Automatic annotation (TrEMBL):
Residue span of region Disordered: 506-526
Official protein name in the record: Biotin carboxylase of acetyl-CoA carboxylase
A Pfam family matched in the record: Biotin_lipoyl
Biotin carboxylation domain segment(s): 8-452
Length: 602
């Protein structure tokens, strides 16, 4: 946006949904700005639609309404809005969307499309960081074209190696090869995921650092050349390279390291003429050295903890900066105080490898009290769709110091009531009470080092029509299914009827090969049928009829709520029937494969 033509923003279309859409709309309402929501099929009564001043149904020719650039821009023009806020995820870091918005004489609330393109391409971002004097993790500076090329680089530089999507983010398009035999699958899976999520299959390589901290710096720039770093956040506790708990400041950052992180971040943001809210992510080693990872050219999920310690409403600041105003704060006046922690309350079962758990919330009661904030996406009676991510709410607390913040978060977690779906609340309670977390020693390998924080699997939800896909035909039933159910430490043999059946899909038999390992399915090995504990779409099948498998071997990969979930064999044996194929939609309880005992050798 040109400085010579500042614009008054009176109405904003929020091109997003869920918690971030509500967050933006609330900031707009406080500034007297009208809001316009967009929504897709089955979302007419969604919370963000109910809260907005106006709402428009988006009907793309195919795919998600939140990814349909032409339809969203047409809706913005039809609604006569002054600006578009992309939120995070979806098209928030898509330069084509930013270009299309500004080409329609509508203000884009974010950095320029050129900046998004430069920093959104992880390879170009590494080069920009090097020019700004910010060091990166050793890696490639051009896309890697083949698994063979990737293997040659890894052989020369050493394992483990991270394969990463050039246009990636949010933990997607990321695989780790710890030895040469794993590079082929890591490369192909990363390219496939990058193509599906970002429309760009390019990948690059980085040395994968063991046991680092994940630390990021919030930066903000305006159209007048001012760039300020607002401090760091620690996001080390993750699953599948996606964040679960964030805090500010980081317990591992000294004042000297903090000064270096902030100065390097300001230098990098300034070098690309950054405008708006952005986050620069680093890996922090035990000796205090840090390496550039990437820059996210949008508001972050965890912006809340920075708001709590600085007292600055970052979304309001986005709106002011987009309209041409200078930053409302200066580096000298910025004095963070206290400590803030955020827990992402997701509809997931931590005991089943954080399997998504779509469904309807039957009870919802948020915690209250001094220093407690809830940025919610759902409420009682709302349905969590398998089409989108699993975030129910972000629970954020503030304390005068870290011990007080931890105590307040533990109390708030205990007060948070959600029924009808499985949630990560019990998991968070375990983490907040774990001695390594309390001591401030958590790294990105926390869950691998301390698996005791993972809760027991929730008892299975039983329904005659488990989580049907809207518009889908009612499934047929199969023979009763046997499950071993554990409730409060007691085990029960259970027979369930009315579960959906699947047609057997013939598959060409292939040669035996080494198998990838996964968490085993949480069901009794006494049953020969492997069933799905989640609802989603099959994106890969790793076995064929006749294959021998061991407990935990990956049978298939199911995409649910924007996450890939590996489903492992629940018993040793041989696959006699495979009931799924790539592209199939699975319901909870659907039979995936039949696994019988290996025949006795003569």
């Amino acid at each position: 946006m040109s400085l010579s033509s500042p614009r008054t923003i009176r109405s904003v279309l929020v091109a997003n949904r869920g918690e971030i859409a509500l967050r933006v709309m609330k900031a707009c309402r406080e500034l007297g700005i009208a809001t316009v929501a967009v929504y897709g099929e089955g979302e007419a009564d969604a919370p963000h639609v109910r809260y907005a001043d106006r709402a428009y149904r988006v009907r793309p020719e195919a795919g998600s309404p939140y990814l349909a650039i032409d339809a969203l821009v047409a809706t913005a023009r039809a609604a006569s809005v002054d600006a578009v806020h992309p939120g995070y995820g979806f098209l928030a870091e898509n330069p084509a969307f930013a270009t299309a918005v500004t080409a329609s004489s509508i203000t884009w609330i974010g950095p320029a499309a050129e900046t998004i393109a430069t920093m959104g391409d992880k390879i170009a971002a590494r080069r920009a960081a090097a020019r700004a004097g910010v060091g990166s993790v050793p890696g490639t500076t051009t896309p890697v074209e083949s698994a063979a090329e990737a293997t040659r680089w890894a052989d020369a530089h050493g394992y483990p190696v991270a394969v990463k999507a050039a246009a990636g983010g949010g933990g997607r398009g990321f695989r780790v090869a710890r030895r040469a035999e794993e590079m082929g699958s890591a490369f192909s899976e990363c390219r496939g995921e990058a193509e599906r999520y970002f429309g760009n299959p390019d990948v690059y390589l980085e040395r994968y650092l063991e046991r680092p901290r994940h630390v990021e710096v919030q930066v903000f720039g305006d159209q007048h050349g001012h760039v300020v770093a607002l401090g760091e956040r620690d996001c080390s506790i993750q699953r599948r390279h996606q964040k679960l708990i964030e805090e500010s400041p980081s317990p591992a950052v000294t004042e000297e390291v903090r000064a270096d992180l902030k100065s390097g971040s300001v230098a990098l943001a300034t070098s690309v003429s950054y405008v708006g809210a952005g986050t620069i992510e680093y890996l922090l080693a035990a000796d205090g050295s840090f390496s550039f990872l990437e820059m996210n050219t949008r508001i972050q999920v965890e912006h809340t903890v920075t708001e709590m310690v600085t007292g600055i409403d970052l979304v309001k600041e986005q709106l002011r900066v987009a309209s041409g105003e200078p930053l409302s704060f200066s580096r000298e006046a910025l004095i963070p105080r206290g400590w803030a922690i955020e827990c992402r309350i997701n509809a997931e079962d931590a005991g089943r490898n954080f399997a998504p758990a779509p469904g309807t919330i039957s009870r919802y009661r948020e915690p209250t009290g001094f220093g407690v904030r809830v940025d919610g996406a759902m409420g009682e009676g709302d349905s969590i769709s398998p089409m989108y991510d699993s975030l129910i709410a972000k629970l954020v607390v503030w304390g005068r110091d870290r011990p007080e913040a931890i105590a307040r978060m533990r109390r708030a977690l205990g007060d948070f009531e959600i029924a009808g779906v499985e949630t990560t609340i019990p998991f968070h309670e375990r983490v907040l009470g774990h001695e390594a977390f309390v001591a401030g020693e958590a790294t990105t390998t926390f869950l691998d080092e301390f698996p005791d924080v993972l809760t027991r699997p929730y008892p299975p939800r039983v329904s005659a029509s488990p989580n049907p896909v809207p518009g889908a035909a009612r499934p047929e039933t199969t023979e009763p299914l046997g499950l071993l159910v554990e409730v409060n430490g007691q085990r029960f043999d259970t027979r369930i009827t009315g579960l959906p059946g699947q047609l057997t899909v013939p598959q060409r038999k292939r040669a035996e090969r080494p198998r990838r390992r996964s968490a085993a399915a949480t069901q009794s090995p006494a049953s020969t049928e492997l069933v799905s504990a989640i609802q989603g779409t099959v994106i890969r099948v790793e076995v064929a009829p006749g294959d021998a498998v061991a407990t935990g071997d990956v049978v298939c990969v199911v995409e649910a709520m924007k996450m890939e979930n590996e489903i492992g064999a629940h018993r040793d044996g041989r696959i006699t029937e495979l009931h799924v194929a790539v592209g199939d939609s699975l319901a909870v309880g659907a039979v995936i494969a039949s696994i019988v005992d290996e025949p006795a050798r003569p």
